[in-house]
Structure formats: C-alpha cells, structure tokens
Amino acid sequence: MSRPSASSEESYHVQHSPFGAFASFTCGLVDAPGGFGQSLRGPAKQNLYIGYRNGPAASWRLLPFLTPPKSQEGAFTGDTTVVQPPRGFDSLRPTDYTRTLGWASDTWRAEGGRFGFSLLSPFGEVPDPAKMKRAAARFHLAPLVTGWIEYDNRTGSSPVELVFGVGVGDDTLRPLGDTAPGLTGFAAGGRFGYATKPGRNVALKQGFDILNPKFLDHRGLHVIAGETGLVCTVPAGQRKRFPLVLGFYAAGPVSTGLTASFAYTRLFADLEDVLAHGLKEYRRYERLAAQRDRELARTKLSDDQKFLIAQATHSYLGSSELLWHKGKPLWVVNEGEYRMINTFDLTVDHLFFELQWQPWAVRDTLDLFVRRYSYRDQHGLSFTHDMGVNDFFTPPGRSSYECDNQHGCFSHMTMEQLLNWVLCACTYAAHTGDRTWLRANRKTLLACADSLRRRDHPDPAQRDGLLKQDSARVGEGAEITTYDSLDVSLGQARNNLYLSVKALGAWVLLERTFATLGLHPESAAARATADLLARTLTTKFEENTGFFPAVFEKNNCSRILPAVEGFVYPLFLGYRDATDAAGRFAPLFAQLERHLSQSLQRGICLDATSGGWKMSSTSTNTWFSKIAIAQHVVRSLFPAALNDSARAADRVHANWQRTPGCGKDAMCDQIRSDSGEACGSRYYPRGVTACLWLRE
Amino acid sequence: MSRPSASSEESYHVQHSPFGAFASFTCGLVDAPGGFGQSLRGPAKQNLYIGYRNGPAASWRLLPFLTPPKSQEGAFTGDTTVVQPPRGFDSLRPTDYTRTLGWASDTWRAEGGRFGFSLLSPFGEVPDPAKMKRAAARFHLAPLVTGWIEYDNRTGSSPVELVFGVGVGDDTLRPLGDTAPGLTGFAAGGRFGYATKPGRNVALKQGFDILNPKFLDHRGLHVIAGETGLVCTVPAGQRKRFPLVLGFYAAGPVSTGLTASFAYTRLFADLEDVLAHGLKEYRRYERLAAQRDRELARTKLSDDQKFLIAQATHSYLGSSELLWHKGKPLWVVNEGEYRMINTFDLTVDHLFFELQWQPWAVRDTLDLFVRRYSYRDQHGLSFTHDMGVNDFFTPPGRSSYECDNQHGCFSHMTMEQLLNWVLCACTYAAHTGDRTWLRANRKTLLACADSLRRRDHPDPAQRDGLLKQDSARVGEGAEITTYDSLDVSLGQARNNLYLSVKALGAWVLLERTFATLGLHPESAAARATADLLARTLTTKFEENTGFFPAVFEKNNCSRILPAVEGFVYPLFLGYRDATDAAGRFAPLFAQLERHLSQSLQRGICLDATSGGWKMSSTSTNTWFSKIAIAQHVVRSLFPAALNDSARAADRVHANWQRTPGCGKDAMCDQIRSDSGEACGSRYYPRGVTACLWLRE
C-alpha cells in the first residue's frame, strides 16, 4: 500500500481493469476526465462526478475528475447563451484529500476521512480457462471492477448526499432499470455501465447538468442528455457505504485475422448480466481485492516500491485480453498505447507475473508463437516480434512491427525473439513442472538451440558464443533489440552486450531443460556454449575503464544497465550455480560488478538531473520495466554495486509515475530520465516486472 | 444536378450513406477531415487522401479533405522532432476543381476534367423488408456506398497515379486481402472499410505517411500505422476508372429497450461479404444512382433547388436505420445530431419522401406509435414525441424528449403528435390504398378524432375547432409544438395558428378517411368540425393589419409562414375541394393569401439581411425543412402571394447549405436567418420535405 499522500503535485491516472477484458475505468489525474474505455490506447474522456454535499443547500464537493463539459442544451434550444454546466460545485484540490493506491484498490478520502470513494480491481490466480467450470469462469472472467462510495455522517445533523456519475459528452447513457429492475444505474448501449443496488436512499440523475437539472421527465430524468449519476443519501447519525459495479461488454467478433470474441461473452448474456453478477458477488470480489492489498502492504518494500508495483499491475490488467477462438482460449496482452498483440519482448517480461497468476497464458502464447508466428530464415528458426496490432492478427510468420532495410526502430528482432522463446519456454516448464508440454516442445527447443548457434557463426569452429549474424529478413538493414528506441548502445542486436548476457541466460536454462528431457549430450553442449560465451564476454571487459562496452563494435563506449538483465532468468528459477558470484561465472560476475558499480553513478547510468536509473549512459530515454529488472538483479546478485544514490532512486521512479509527466497516461514505460516525462510506451503493461521485487 | 461550381466559398460536407445503416461516409468540406461514421451525431474525423500525381517525381495533388495528421511515428521512436506527415503534396483549392452534387452522386473534377472522383449513394424504391426475398434484400439493404476514381491520361506521356486513402489517426486499419483475397483495400476491424478489385495497377499503402513511407514491411506496408490508401496507376495513353466500395458492418445488438440488430446482419456474414457484394453488383448500383441523378436533373427546378433536394436526401439516408426485432423489420429515422428515434414531428415531414420510396416505413412507424408509444391523458389518446434516443428505446408511452413543468423546449407535444398520427395515417392509407391497414386502425382513428375534439373543449357546446386544452402531462407548464426552439409565436401549442391550420388539414383528411371506412356519420362530423374550425380561424384575422396573429392569445403579433403548413396534406393527396382558393374554405384562403403576401416581405418573414425565408417575423431561427413545405404550399396554392424577393430566396437557402455555416455538418435545419449559420438540427434528415417540389 502506498502511503496516503496530500502532495499537491501528486496527480496520476490509474487503470481500473477487469482481467482479460481489454477495458479500463481510468481516473485519478487531477482536473482531467477519464472513465470507461474499451480497447483504447489511452484514457477515455468522460467527466466523472464523484463527491458529496452536506445537505441540499450546500455546494457539491467533487473529486477533480472533470473538465467543464460542453452542454448540449444549446444544441436543442438554439440558445448559445446558456451558461455551461455543471455549476455550483467545488472541485476538491489534492491537498483536500488523500489517495491510497493498493495492489487491487484505489481509495480517496476527504472531510477528515468521513467521505470515502474506492475502486477495486480484484485479481488473483486464474485457472486455465480451457478447463474452468462455468461458475468459476464467471467469477474470474467477469468484465467488471467494483467500488464503493461512503460517508460517515454519525456526527452530522443533516443528511449528506453522495454522487457517483459519468458524463459522456457527445454520447448518451440509458437508465438500466428499464431492462434490469435489479440494477440502479446507467449504461451506454450494451457496451459499458455502472450500477448499485436499488434502494430508498439511491436516486438516479440524468440531464445536461446533473447537479442543477433544469429539465425533468416523468421520472425525474432527461434521457437525451449525456450526463448521469447516482445520488445516495446518508441520513444524519448514520454511516453508509454504497457498493458500485462498473462493467463492460463487447459482443460479437472483436478480432480479425484470427476471428475471435471475448471469452466472457460465452459466460454472460449481456452487460446487465455482468452488472447483476458483480452486485451478487460483490463481497467475494471485495475479499479478493483486500487479500491482494494486504499481501502487498505486508511486504518489506518501501512505499514507493509498493506504489510502483500497484500502479504497474493496474495497467497490466488494462492491457489484458482473453479471447475465445474456435472453442479455445486465446490469450492476448496488448502493448499499451501501441496495442500490438503479444509483443514477444513484453511476454518475456510479463513472464514472472504471469507464472504466478496465470501460467497457462505463458504456455498458450508460446504455443501460438510456434504454430503461427514462427519462421525460418537462413540460420534457422525464430519468432516474430508480435502477433498483430489493434485486434488484427497478422498473417502467419509476420508481425505488425517489423519492416525491412531498417537500422533502427521497426527493423527485425530475430535474435531477440529467438532468445525470448527459449527463455519463456524453459522458465515456464521449470517453474510449473509441466513435463507434458516440455516433451511436446522438445523439437522446437532443439531447433532453437541450433538456430542460436548458427546466429553466432555458421561454422562451428568460428563460434565464440556471441550472436552476430543478422537475419536475411533485415535486407539492407540490421537487427535491433527490444530497446529499439534507445541509441545504438541497446538498439543494435549484433555483438550486443545486453543480448549476449541474455543469451548466456538462455544457454544456462537450456542446459537444465535438456537434462530434464533426458537429452544429456545436448545439455552438456549447452553448458559448453554458456561457458564459451561467458569466457568471450570476459574478454570484452575494458580493464582500463572498468566497463563493458554496450556493443562490441566500432569503439562503442556506452554504458548500460541491462548488461545483467540476462541473469534474471536463472535467478528467478533459483539456479544457484549460474548466479553465484563465486561460482562458475565468477570472473564475469566480478567484471559485471565493477561495471555496475561504476555505472550506478550520477552522470553515467544515474541521471545527472533526477538521479533516476538510466538504461544507457548515452540516452536519456529510460524504461521503467527494465529498471525494475535491473534493480532486482543488482540487489539480488550484485548488492555491492549499489550506493545510496542508486538506492534512493525508487522515490524518483515513483514520482515520475505519480506526477502528470507519466501519470496522465497511467503507467508509462519510456521516460525521459531528466524530466520524468513519458516519451513513449504509455498506458503500458510491462511495468509488472516490478513484481520481481516481491521475491527479494 | 446542381451546377458545377468553382466558387471559392463553396464548402460543405455531404453524407454518403447506405439505406438503413445509420452510417455515413462524409466528405466535401474544404480543409476538413471526414470519412466513415457509424451512428454518429456529426462527421467523422478521418483524413482522406484523394487525388493524383503525374508520375513518381511530381507532387501529389489532393482534394482538401485532410488536416495535417499527428504522426504516431514519434510515439514509437521516442523522437518528437519528426516532422509531421504527410508532406510533399499540394492541397487543391476550390478554384482548382468543380464539384457536382447529384441526387445520388457527388463528383469532383480537376485538371481540366481529366481527374475525377465520385461517390454514389444509390437509392430507390425499397420493398417491404418483411416480404423481400434474400437476393433483393441483399441488394437494397447492403450497408455500402460505391464510388470511383479516374484519370484520363490519353494525352499523357507518363503514368499517372491516383490515390484513395483513409487515415484514422488514433486507430489502425488492416489490409483486407488477408481475409478476403478478392478485395484490395483496408478495414477497421470488422466495422468499416473500403476496397477495389485486385489488379496489377492497384497497390496498397499503409504507414505513418502513405505519401512518403519510410518503413515498409515484407509486402510494402506498415500495419501498425493508421494511414492507408490505394494507389492506382493509369499508364500513359490510357483512361482508367477504378471502382470503389465503401462498406459498414455493425454486428450484434445495437439497440436497447427494444433489443435489435441491423437488418442487414441477417443477409451479410461480415464486412468482407458486404464489400465483395458491392464490387459484384457495382454496375447495378451505378445504374440506380445514375437513374436518380437523371430524374432530378431533368426536372424544371432551378439548380439551387436541385442542390437542396440532393443534399437533403443524402442526409436523410444518413439518419436512416433498419433494424430487425423479433423476426420483423423495425424502422428508425434518427433525428440528426440529436439521434432521437422516430421523432414524430419529423416522421410527419418525412412522410412525403417515404411514401414514394418506402411506404411500409410510414406504416410500421405508425403501428409502433400505437403499440408502444401511445398514451391517454385526461382528454384521450395521443402519442409521444419520439421513441427514444441514440438506439435506446424508451419505456412504453414515454419519449426521451418530453419533460414536465416546462413552458418552452422539452415540454410535451401532445396536440402536435396527435395531429401527426392522424395526418400520417390518413395520408398513408389514401396514398397507398392500403385498406386492410386502414380497417385495422379504425378504432385508433375514431379515438384520435374524439381526443382532438376534447382538446378543443370537453363541453361540445363550447367547441370552436381550436386546440386549446393542454395535456395534464405538462404539469405546471404548457404544451409546445415542433417549433420548440422558436419564440412563442410557434412554440406554444395552445391557440396556435400553425397548429390550428394543421388541425384543419387533419379534419379534412379524417372526413375522407371515415368515408372510405364507411363511417359516414363520423365523416360528416369531421366535415362539420373542419368547417367550424375554418370559420373560427377567419374571425382571428386582423383586418386592420392584414395578418393573422401567430397565437390567439395575449395580443401576440408575430407573423408566421407555417400558417399554411396544414394545407400540404390535402394538397399532397389532391383533395381539390379543400385546396381550391374559390372552394369551401374561400374566405380563409383569401385571408391567408393576404397574410402571406404581407409576410413575404423583407423585414417580416424574409430576413432583412439575407432575404431568406423566416418561419416567424419575431425569430431569426428559421428551419429549412419547413421553408420547403411553405414554399411548396405557397407556390401551389397561393402563387399570388409570391414576389421576386421571395422567389429569389432559393439561392439564399442553397448558399446557406453550400457554405460552412451549415455545410460543416452536411444538411442543417435550424439556421440563423441573418447569418446562415446553423444553430441546431445539424446533420439532419428533415430537409427531404424539399422533395415535395418535384410535384410542382
């Protein structure tokens, strides 16, 4: 649980998202709209009316989640002199309230804690959807988040009103009670909506200005208008909390290439079914969210670290999408604002989170990469960068991202994705013990090992372990890595330090995996390749500077933190021999510790201005998800390389996300290390690498 | 066919819309985006790339249908210094091209006519969907429009390239060939798309900048980017025209309250099916559009009048929506930017158009008003203002618009809608000869007559024919008319001149209808009421001023043109006795002619500044749809009231729609009579009343 804060600078959106619905109810940024977004690349733009007033004569006090909406009244009346509503409310300032972000909750308190509003994103272990019983599936896959709004009026002498409302501007909502008498709330067609339970203390509001309605129909609404709300009354002397359910529903096929619908559409008839289910199971969802909150709160991590884990998890869920294709689950994580489907260099980072909560997602994604998104070039097998974009599955063997004849962004990532399949597959199999799957993928693993070696050199005699053969797919260009938008220090794949250490991790895992499969000669060969590669790496160390160069070409002298990223896999799996500073890679470890010690200095890989961790000494573009991995590896394997400045940077990283530079797009990944402004990868799932810290 | 124009001021959007799909491909406004819009209240915001270049070295010359799009390249690369594409094109100015709007086509020509681009909205008589065979239904209900792009390069010495493209900015499109090899084009998911036939001369383009693509994948595209296009090559010495099909598809339930899907979803599996059908039936659609174009072109109307009819028809189709509910058609016309469902005071105006092209739509709408949207107040039967809003059908007996305790906009329209049912029903039955339907609605007609009389006065002895009893539904307010947003001259229903003459029309029709039903005493009674009402009206004429007051209360002295609107129904049905200036209503006709002659003067009901027709002398808010009816009635029944200024106003009305004040939202209805700026009712279907002129 992050600390309650009354900082006037704190201002950030959070995605409150169901599991697998590619949907978010986004809010939290100060003086900004948000609300229900389906399959969007950023926050929705709905005005949210959330607050309270001390009796009908008082002013409404609302959380600052709206911008003055353009009234549509004038469009009807032809009178453009109408003052823009809503009027008559005070917008709470950040100093007027506290906000507490938990792992599965986000809670605002004001009026000395008497007013409370919370949104819950309950998440937990999700069993394999292919095998889940209907009741369990309805619970785990319901496209909803829950919440509550409350007031403690026990010392009050007049009734207090609470409002929770949504204004959709150009669109309209409809009262849900017309189709579902058990629901009090509003919906946008059948697409999204919010509801509480019907009750004497709950009234519906709809109009051009729900705070000061001028036009009321027979039931006190005006359904042609876009602004809606629930007004709940708390009598004097009482404390009341009203449950909220926020639901989504996207019917019919939503993807092309592979034509598929949301898995939940098999379980829920429509939005009304979703919302009614949410109210019925409200307590169970609440308990699940509370359990997650407790787990995070009880760790020894700092408040900044807890905040980062909580914020990252929220955005991960917002990008998650569980489809149903030809009778089977089809798992997708969308790449945040880019919405690329199962980008493989994100899959390998989500791995650790997914193995804890839904390991079948890793397995299914690996299978789809083999079945549809693998290819062979002149060196052998590899995999595409992604499976498509924006719910469009690209043709077999082709990604949406990779272009030909490029030297930077948009080139191919053949080496990187080959490593990613190996690392995900071995980690999945070792972590879950899924021998059946492993045996079924024996041939693929062997082909990967062969392909890796040939990308070192086609002639076995000339191999040194380093990947340095570009795929023919690049044409006149060169292969890149996931760090495409950084400078050449991380962007170029060939002879790349980051990728070489990642390859080392892959060989270490292959050694174990082949042994598990009883392929002992192959296991020994993998071990030999790992040792060869490690030895080669030690020759690249610059004794004079105490650094590794980022690229073993052209006198590159960038310094990079992902030099140790490749160790996260053996570390995660507890492979002590490969992660012991005094073990088989001791010479390399000693060099890497020197490299890290010197890198984690202001002006090198700690930003001179902010103190935040930088992926590369020569780029101010740094990525939080990768910082999180680097922190985990450094703290776990190279603790001596840390210094006070490096340790203090969690606060810097948290403040980047807590302020509008990143916070206006919820969790962001690509950040300018000096200013803390996001420069790409907004609304992004990859930050869940921070969950690795829970293992420290 | 409106005249080809090279006016630099001409700039207007047109909705290119299928029948019944509530969808438009909107374009034409200068320097503005447009494109595919589904169920929108205004134009979409896509950039359109439509133009040509004389060989690969020349600059592209594009129609001015785009604003510089924000490139997403920077979001991927983190590099915000990238110049915003597209670059390297010349935006054609209105003086560089001609535009010709036909009844079912919209054609641009440039380069001395060598370049041509056209969009067709083929429409015609649509048989009753409840009875249409599948093949006919696929033809009539296909959610598509067609078009073509061409270049006459017969005198050229190098190949010319043509481009037709769409940029969706924040979203992405996908190449259609992946799922449908017979289609060359792009689609947004399964929702909309465009295609031509595959061919050697047609290439696909997709990227951040389709005119200058930097990043090309294995097939020369970049599917993560939002800008797409077809580039067609016309070799030197040839003239080539490339067919285009623009399609929509909205799967699953789209409405609530009455849960229904688009009728076409029963006939087409998906968007690909729609587009392939469009290419297959291309010639037939083209012939249908050409037939409509010819019909309008051959009339004796002026070019301005033809333009108004063409523009109005396009926007009517854009608001049309044919749903399928429980095995039956469910007809909807959406109210333009307000999207209210089957607003009854629009239905009564669409009547004349719909009786020509799809009379079943009138019948089905009347039936649904009886079945679900009728109610009884203290005086008897009436009908709601509308059936809901934005695909939400309101509960039985309730509209989305009407509120209680109001004196102006948003009050109830009980008298008006009662008259509208009578007028629509009698006109439908008389025009179509549908006796079965008429007999089935005998009781409703009798109840309407009874309700009308009681709204005059509950005591028969005190009746004078005028409607003056407000419904109890208004509460502390007062009933209004369809002219809600004008001043009291037309807004107040009680003792209203417009509504009284409309009631006269209703009684004239009831007299005939009851006779047809063999209800002779009722027919005689209707005749007597008509005569009573006509006599009463003559007593309201101000001999001293030569005018009728607009409201027979409170010394109102507004002068209104809708004084004669009620005569359009007997005029349409050819009821000579009621429309003969020397006939049974001769004294009233003489007074109305004086009223009109004096009204059609600058500063009264011709705007002092613009010369346009004004509904009321005391309001600058005037409505084109109602001007068109008034013009038709005046020209047909009161020709002596016309003068040169009044006759010349067609040019004024056309210029309003042809320039951005209205044109930025396609056909607009509520217009400031001085400035020609729309002040409401944008993107609006009601202007099809202008089709009455085709009868003159």
Automatic annotation (TrEMBL), chains A, B:
The molecular function GO annotations come to: xylan 1,4-beta-xylosidase activity
The GO annotation for biological process reads: carbohydrate metabolic process
Q: Which domain of life is it from?
A: Bacteria
Question: Which InterPro entries does the protein's record reference?
Answer: 6-hairpin_glycosidase_sf, 6hp_glycosidase-like_sf, Glyco_hydro_52
The name under which this protein is listed is: Beta-xylosidase
Which species does the entry assign this protein to?
Oleiharenicola lentus
Q: What is the lineage of its organism?
A: Bacteria, Pseudomonadati, Verrucomicrobiota, Opitutia, Opitutales
